[in-house]
Amino acid sequence: MEKIPYKTGSFCREERIKKNNDIQKLFKKGKRVSTDGAKLFFLFTGKNINRIAFALPRGYGNAVQRNRCKRLSREVYRLLKTNMHSGYDMVLLVYPGQNSFKNRYAKVKELCGKAGLFMTA
Fold this sequence. Notes:
The chain is of the alpha+beta class. 36% of the residues lie in helices and 20% in strands. It has three helices and four strands; from the N terminus they run H-E-E-E-H-E-H. The chain has a four-stranded mixed beta sheet, with helices on both faces. Helix 2 (63-80) packs across helix 3 (101-115). The radius of gyration is 14 Å and the shape is globular.
């Protein structure tokens, strides 16, 4: 049995995309799906984990609003990642609007479904 490199219920350092070059590559070469209020850029890498970055457009509220938006997005991804295929790099771009956890969960789930990232049962 293959060892999972990260804890199932956590969001660890290896899963984050930090380099600007990696994020720019996703914006240029990655496939994209969108829904009202959010856009997901993704690219298959073939690695055994998914990596993700959370981006906001310029002018997205103040620092408190930006940090809350990213925190909600990270939590939604953490809850959904156990049902996703591995080997993808992703950037989630979230636009200003309704920032409730329930709405964010529904939007990200819809985006991942459109992208075909979920494993079928």
